[in-house]
Structures are given as C-alpha cells and as structure tokens.
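REVIEWER CHECKLIST
Item 1: Sequence provided? yes
Item 2: Single chain? yes
Item 3: Sequence as submitted:
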Amino acid sequence: MGKIEKNNKFKDSPVGIIPKDWNISTIGKSCNIKNTLRKPISADIRRNMKGPYPYYGPTGIVDYINEYRITGKFVLIGEDGDHFLKFDKKRMTHLVEGKFNVNNHAHIIQGSSICLTSWIHCYFQHRDIFSYLTRQGAGRYKLNKGTLLIIPIPLPPLPEQKKIVTILSAWDKAISHTEKLIEAKEKLKKGLMQQLFTQGLGHSEFQDSSVGQIPQEWDLVKTIDVASGNKYSCVGGPFGSNLVTKDYIESPGVPVTRGNNLTIGGCKFIDEGFVYVSENKAKTLLQNTAYPGDILFTQRGTIGQVGVIPCKANFSKYILSQNQMKLTPDFRKVNVLFLYYYFSSPVGQKIILINSIGTAIPGFNLTLLRSSPIPLPPLPEQKKIAAILSAADKEIHILQKKLAALQKQKKALMQQLLTGKTRVFPKGECHE
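Item 4: Structure as written out by the authors:
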C-alpha cells in the first residue's frame, strides 16, 4: 500500500484546507471535456438496436445497443437530474472503460498529464456540488458545461493520486463484489419463493386454482379466513381526520408507521425512522393500532409493500399511517411468516397487482385484502417454508451488514485521503 503518514502542513484553498504540496486547479484547466462524443438515441430507436455495448445516462447504464461511439477510460458526471441532492448515498461520477455510448444528459471527462481520470472519479464520487447547479424545475437541477469547467479540484502529486485511487478502488471492488452477491442471493430467494408457493415441499399431485397450480393437499382460502377473530383484525389507516404535522411529537411516544418502514420483497420490517404521536393521541386511534405479529400493507401509491412487525419489536404498539392497513393473523390457522412471505412473493405480489384498483394512483383496499386468495398448506409445512425463506433472508442480511460496513470504511477513508489529512506515499517516499 505504501507509507501512510499524518501531515500537519496545510494551506487554505477553494475546496478547504489541503496539504501545502498539493496544487489546486479547475476541471476546465486540468481535465479534458469530451461532450462531442455524446449521442442521444431515443428509446424507440434503441428497441431495434439491442446489443452488447452499454448506453449511459446521468446515473448509470440505461440500455445496451449494437454499436459504440467511445473507446477508452472516462469519467461521467450527470448534467441534470435530482441525484445531485443525494450525493452522500448516490454516486455522482461513474468510471467507464472500454467501448460504450453516452447520451446527452451526462458530461464526459478525461484526465490529463497532471490529473488522473481515476482521481476525478474518486474525488467527485460523493461530493456536494449543489452550489454549482442551476434549478430546472421542482426537484431537478442542471450542471451546465460552463459551470463544470470552473469547479475546483485539488491535485496531489501524481504518485499520490495513484496510491489514493488504488486504495479506494480496492474498497470499490469489495463493495461491488458484495452487491453482486446480494443481488444473486435475492434472485435465488425470489425463485425459491415462486417454487415454494406453487409446488410446496415434496408434493407429486397438483390442482388448478385461481393463483395457479398448487399441491393437491393444500387449501385455497381468503385472507379473511386466516385473520384473527377480533374486530380490528383487518383495519386501514386513521379514519376521519388524517394525522397532521401538529399531531407529531418528539420521541418518546407511539411510532407512526410509514412507507419507509415497508419494502417490496426486502427486509421484513424497518423498525426505525418514525414520527411519533402522544399516548393520549394514540388512545383516540385504537382501531388504527398495530402490534407485534401484525402484517402491514400499503393502500395507495406504491402498492405491494409488505411488512411484518416482529415479535421482538422495538415498540409495543404502532399507529398506522393513512395509506396503510394491517392484518392480524389467526396463529391457530396460519404461520405469520408464511403469510408475510406469501404476500412478498411473486405469486402474492401478482395477486395484489391484479386486485388493485385505479390507474394513475393504484390502490389496494381492505375489501380487496380480505378477499385475496391464499394457497394454504398444513401448518407444519407452512412453518418449514417460512424457515427456509427466513434462512435465505438471514444470508442476505449478513451480506447487507457487510456491505454497510465496507461503505462506512470507504467513507472514512475518503474523508482522510481525499483531503490529505492522511497522506499516502509510494514505498520509501516521504513528503516533508
């Protein structure tokens, strides 16, 4: 890796304090802009020219086509979009190498004899450049070429640029490898769900049903048939007046579940990121209260989001938001995780989409939820299916934790290396 040292000799610059032996320049003076290589091709035209060469937009690959216009190593940075506002989580730059194409919504940048192409990519990958943008309507911003040229960039000595890039690239490779593993595991889980909810475990005879073929030994029931007998087993979000901002308090209080607590085929339930209401307000919303073991669904907008509140949840109760509804399962008839995985599976998601109403803003209401068909194995088989999918989820969760750790490590490295707070030199070299 080379020698890493703390450097106490700094100077002020347009990008903040940097080491005295680093130069400061601009993208226009130290890099080459290759926007003449861009080629906008409409989606209609691209349908008839599918091929192996990537076609990039402002945030990544948007298609693959049968021709290429660019060869080499370049950095792409978006010209317009809303991704600029999410610089800490989304990549602002993409390092592209080989044969490819770029549309007219991304700038094409190449390094020079004083600035590595990879350095440009690393330095601006998660950098806040909001002050250089112009507004292009609600939530959309533009980085025009003239402004791009004057954005400042620090330039360490080339050997140090190379070392920094090498170190951060190692983390990028580990992150990319872990992301691909997660993607593969999720794809495998999706296929497993499709198989388990149509073929079950070890069955040889099957029957036709409204959800497709299912094992002969299974029943086909409605959601209401496996709901708890209490009158609040299937309820929607707050009735009457909606919760408004003035209803919310700082924690501690009773959390209000929202869309960010549910996912589509992902984490079972995200037990954080809440707004809260007081205990007194919660008492007026008893019919909209969810408890550990309840399954939650979205009613409007992004339908198909499902979550199950775990038995060991962080809170003893939750208030449903206006666009959510809950199902309290009858545990004598159905395993709660089996039911959750069913509605999260391709089979269950298809049922939700088929039964949704509306076009501009699709909806899935209580009546539709109560009447939705469920293929129901005997309880022991339900538990086995849930256990298999829980094991798959656990593997994915372990990889997600590893990914989060790698991303955190990289972020810390970037804060040190890209500012020169920690110096990295070729072996045997030390800058005084």
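Item 5: Key structural point noted by reviewer: The mean pLDDT is 90.
Item 6: Recommendation: ____
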